[in-house]
Amino acid sequence: MRFQSVGACATGTSHTEREQPCQDAFEIVDRVHGSVACVCDGAGSAAKSEIGARTLARQVAQQLSRNIEGLVSDPTAQAQVEDAIQIARNKLSSEGELADYHATLCGVVLTAHGTLVFHLGDGLIFGINPDDWSDYLVSEPENGAFVETTYFFTLPGWRQHLRVFCAPAQYRSWFLMSDGAASFAAKNSPWRPELNFLQPIHNYLRTTYQTQAEEALLGTLSDPRSHRITTDDKTLVWLHRAP
After folding, report:
1. pTM of the model
2. Residue 36's pLDDT is what?
């Protein structure tokens, strides 16, 4: 069984112009029996959100990678995701106020038997049947009472907004993205993949060596045309399981 993964993160012009750090982060852990990926988007209003995003992505991906093969069918899967998030919360709360580290979370655990999907706040996840691109599923962003608000892992009621579900094995290709990347990689009302963008990326990454694939994906996200669409940070992660 062959698993592939590529991710990239491009700092938005709204941050580079102010000499601010990128507030997106991603982490991918590849194992023999599958891959874990997380994409996190730090809140612009939080003083250390880039640290929150990096810590959350790394902690959750590393923690869940310890049980990749059995996680999809494990009845305690949601509890394991919650525990991984809580470890990140505990680590950051020992270093400062949690409100300084606001970030959202998109994640998947891809295995031969299916995929575990977990999602907190905004960002977007697509699971695609690569044999039929009209067959896909979506984990949509969850916003708060206002369009520009969402839910973060640092909030007291974060568990109420954590969504966890299992997807069938036919969905072998996955895209995880921050809302910056979603502005051109997806269509909304309803949410669906932007095939003219994602399908060529999938076809290229599937047949390209890792380093070259990572450079190409970063180049795409950093293209001036993407900055004209959004000045936000842009993160995109692709996972694929060969049949």
Report:
1. 0.96
2. 98
